[in-house]
Amino acid sequence: MGPTGKTVLTSLLIDECQKIPDVCVAFFYCKHKDPQRSTFVAIARSILLQLLCYKKALLSYIYKEASTSGESSLESSELTKKLLEVALKAFNKVYLIIDGFDECGKTEKKLISTWFQSIINSVSIEDSGGLRCLFVSQADNDTGSLFVGAAILCRSRGDVGGSRTKGHDINKAILRAAYIAAGGLLHWPDANAREVLPLRMYLAA
C-alpha cells in the first residue's frame, strides 16, 4: 500500500478508536531518515507523553527517574524501556497504533518489534487483550520476518483502484477488520498541559 493510503487509513482508524471509552490509546507516525521520528526511543517518548495525559499518577514516578538519570532528555534505551513498561502496565487496557514502521532503519525495526512484542506477550499472560499494538507498514524485506506469528492484514495496491464507492467500501472493511482483530478500542481525553509540562522537555522528541 502506498505511504499516503496507509497513513490516511491509520488516521481514520485512530479517529474511530478515539470514540470508544475506557481504553487508553496512543499513536505515532514514523518518518524515514528523521531521527526524531524513526527510532525506538522517539516512539517511546511520544507514547509516554501521551500516557501521562491519561494518568497523572505516573508523573511523580517518571519525574523521579528523570531527575536521577543524569540526562537532560530521555535518550537511554534501557531507561526508556523501563519507564514505558511501567507506564503501560499502569492501565487496564491500552491500544497502540504505530504508522510507517517500514520507514525505520533495520536495526531500529528489530528493536521496536522485539520489545513491543515481548511486552505485549508479558501483559497478555495476566490480562489477555489488555495491551494491543497495531503496526502499519508497507511490505519490505524486513517487516514480515519480524512479526512471525502475529495477525497480519494485507492490502495491495490493486485494492486502491476502482470506483470511489469501491474504495470507500474497502476502507470500511479494513477498519472493521482491524477493529474486530483488536477486540474494540478507545477514547482520547483532553490533555492537561500544566500537569505534563515539567516533563515535556525531558520526553519531547
Please tell me about this protein's structure:
The protein is mainly alpha-helical and 205 residues long. It is 52% helix and 9% strand. It contains eight helices and three strands. The protein has a three-stranded parallel β-sheet, sandwiched between helices. Helix 5 (106-126) links the parallel strand 2 (94-99) and strand 3 (131-136).
Give a quick precis of the structure.
The chain is mainly α and 205 residues long. It has eight helices and three strands, in the order H-E-H-H-H-E-H-E-H-H-H.
Search tags:
globular, 3 strands, mainly alpha
State the distance separating the first and last CA atoms: 28 Å
Strand content: 5-15%
Quaternary state reads single chain
Could you estimate the helical fraction of the residues in percent? Answer: 40-55%
Kindly provide the radius of gyration, computed on alpha-carbon positions and rounded to a whole number of angstroms. 17 Å
The structural class is mainly alpha
Strands, helices and their partners?
Elements: H1 3-17, E1 24-29, H2 40-54, H3 58-67, H4 77-88, E2 94-99, H5 106-126, E3 131-136, H6 143-146, H7 164-182, H8 193-203
Parallel strand pairs: 1-2, 2-3
